[in-house]
Amino acid sequence: MACFGWCSAPKVDEDIDRPYSIKRPSKVVDSADQAFVEDPIGVIPNGSESEQGGFKSLRSTHAPPLPTVHTPSKAPSKGSYAKVEEVVGSIPISVKERASANIEWVVGLDFGTTYSGFAYAKAADPEHIHVYYDWPSRNSEKPYCKTLTGIYYTEEQAEKLQCASWGHHARSDSVVSTAKGVYLSKFKLLLKKDLDDPFLVSSIPSPLTVNTIITDYLRHIGELALTVIKNHEGDVSFNRDSVQWCVTVPSIWDESAKQQMKACMVNAGLVSGKGGIESVKVVLEPEAASFHCHQILRQKHKDLSLHVKDKILVADVGGGTVDIVVQELIGSGNDYKVQELTESSGGLCGGTFVDESFMRFLSKRIGCLDEFLRSGVPSYRSRLLKDWEEIKCGFGHEMVSNNDTKEITLHNKLASKWEAYDAERGYPPRQSYGEIELTQQDLKSIFDPVVDEIVELIAAQLMQVEDIKVMFVVGGFAGSPYLMQRIRKRFSRDVKHIVSPPNPGSAIIQGAVALALNPDAVVARILKKTYGTSVTLPFEKGVDPSEFLKISEENGVEWCRNRFDSFVKKGTRIEVNKFVTKEYVPHTRGQAQMMFDLYSSNEQEPRYTEGPTVTREGGFAVSLPESYSMDDMPIFEFSMYFGRSNIELRAEAQFKQNQGEKARAMELPVRYYS
Q1: Are residues 644 and 516 in the same domain?
Q2: CA dist., res. 657 & res. 426, Å (int)
Q3: Cα–Cα distance, 405 to 469 (Å, whole number)
Q4: Which residues are CB-neighbours of 546 under 8 A, at least 6 positions away?
Q5: Residue 92 lies in a domain
Q6: How do residues 323-357 score in pLDDT, each as one tens digit?
Q7: From residue 631, how far is each of 475, 586, 588 by CA, in Å?
Q8: Domain identity same for 614 and 656
């Protein structure tokens, strides 16, 4: 693998394609005004540097070289992530090109754990955002702004699965179809690396991968969105390249998951080859919800007005994830602008985990249920969850008495199996095996473990910031009367206004479109992690572990591999248009690309890139011009944006100005690898 470094540095005992570096002063650049702020000097290996805080750069050239070595990166995986490598190498559109691009439509796509949907607007008519409701269904599904995030595969040929249906159709087909097939749901959660759900992981049959499933689903819902837009005005000249896609993601996702989502959009064929992965915008779900709620208040609830310096807490309670962010309003009215006040937080405790709690409850009540679902009628789980959905949505409603009970009718085969199961064990016979009764206390025991976790996440954010004026509660699970009842009971004394907008499930998709049409609305974010790369530094005896020791064969100098070299620090507020800028020189003649691994940590000052507190987030590879001279080397300038909804890298070759010629610059292709 070709890497990068400073060619003037002496060689250490490593392969020729490993990088070196020197000391340089650092600075932060604002892409709006190009202002520079100098920071302390630090060690700069592999195009990075260690520092006491702030941003870094490799602009000046006065310091003497210091040898360092980049820890070799693994080659990008050829497994389930192989397609990502292939598609993310597209040349990014420059900022100016993007601004002048012929974007006529903006689509917000909310790919959720349980439900997914989309909204769209004409770029020339941003006030009118259309939410799609007319989802294909074979049953009388209640009108909703989303369809099921489910997909059904059948085995058309031996060991070859084909997507047969998606959305509502997928679940109903899996129940009635006689073909050999598999129904998959909740697969979005598998993008989270630290998910501890062996059952969900094992539910993906070979040769399917998480990426292929998500790509298939996005292809179908995306093509439907394009058809709807095309038919909106009967536009026969509709060009799919005129669509700007905005994909919503949880703020708690790591960089790898965000990049995987963007790559799946490209693999699905929804994005043109010219723009590639960079033409997919990532929108953070709680930010989209906040913007939408602000618009609702401004337009329809003028009795509750927000002003500059007001503080807002947004709780996005979806099917799989809960995202919470606290923002401060720094521009109001039509000039809406916010900045984060705390690190966004959240967890895997959305509405789908109430479903899992329900299934555990049933398993305890019906001793043979698990065996029945494994070997009897596996598709019956989907039917049980569908019947449960109606009960879940109504629990806690003010019209429902605390003494009311709910019944679920059971499959005839399950009823017979349950009766035989009890008889074999000598249990007293039940009055009926054909249904199961759920009391209000039963329902409370199913809901409370998940709702308690959500409430505590909100409480933890409120402890960090005082004087929250309004709390917005959005997302699919925000439609639960019981959840809202619990939130209001716990926090009504701390927060004056607790608001859940009409149709809270559509707040994110509408907000995603609105944010795309108002890209300057979010001004700054708080970093949840420290980001950096892997470098080699002088070995410190008694501090560094011996397994990281590398001794130079040339001069016997001792080096420590796998040292964490920070770009930006956890807890830092970073403006969206601030970027870390660095300049690199290829190490070898004919080097085709420069690349480095990106690491993150929850620690402020991580020392190593290996260990339980550090995560490898993938990395960036920059393709170099086909012909350049080592004797007349252009400056390769990298700009990394850490304050945006996902980490972005722009790379440029700045060629030297020869006599009689104008200085010129070339934007370089960048790809993310996992």
Answers
A1: no
A2: 92
A3: 38
A4: none
A5: no
A6: 999 999 998 777 889 999 999 999 999 999 999 99
A7: 58, 12, 12
A8: yes
